[in-house]
Specification:
The chain is mostly helical. Helix content is about 55%, strand content about 5%. The protein folds into two domains: about 30 residues; about 140 residues, Lysozyme.
Length: about 180
């Protein structure tokens, strides 16, 4: 009898644990935003940064979507870093550590998402990206290829991923 009681209790605890895990996964899925929601939330900030710094809003939005999983990545949610910008020697702000290309890499952490967008603009004003500003603001293909060439991302498909996002979601209309 005692054996049956412990077996039933163990089964009950196991089912309860599975139920809690499933509930957490369902709650997390409900809190995710879609790419369309991401665009609606951040298009004004991207356009503001474009007017101030000359970086196409389509590029900013596409990079934000790609780098942050439309704002759903751990880095975006916990550090409000939508562009995967890592810490540099001149970074004096808060940091967030997460495994990326290497274990426990240092990423910039922001108080507000808008600050992440602004810092992205400032980051692209570095010398290594200066050739991008010779391109027309509506040349999103040139900007996408130029970002890869200047070393923004290691993925060889990075330009095409940005271009596909821009065309799929008609982000060029914000330029």
């Amino acid at each position: 009898m005692r054996y049956i009681f412990f077996l039933a209790l163990s089964l009950l605890l196991l089912l309860s644990s599975c139920h809690r895990k499933l509930h957490r996964q369902q709650r997390a899925a409900r809190n995710k935003i879609t790419t369309e929601e991401y665009i609606a939330m951040y298009k004004k900030i991207a356009r503001k940064e474009m007017k101030k710094h000359g970086i196409p809003a389509s590029i900013t939005l596409a990079q934000g979507i790609l780098e942050s999983g439309s704002g759903n990545s751990e880095l975006a949610r916990k550090a409000r870093n939508h562009f995967g910008i890592k810490c540099t020697a001149d970074w004096n702000g808060k940091t967030y550590h997460v495994d990326d290309d290497k274990p426990n890499e240092c990423f910039r952490r922001y108080k507000h998402v808008e600050t992440s967008f602004h810092d992205h603009s400032e980051f692209l004003k570095r010398k290594r990206y200066s050739s991008l500003f010779d391109l027309d603001r509506d040349d999103y293909e040139g900007w996408a290829k130029g970002l890869k060439k200047a070393g923004y991302a290691t993925n060889p498909k990075y330009p095409q991923l940005l271009i596909n996002l821009i065309e799929k979601h008609k982000l060029y209309k914000y330029d």
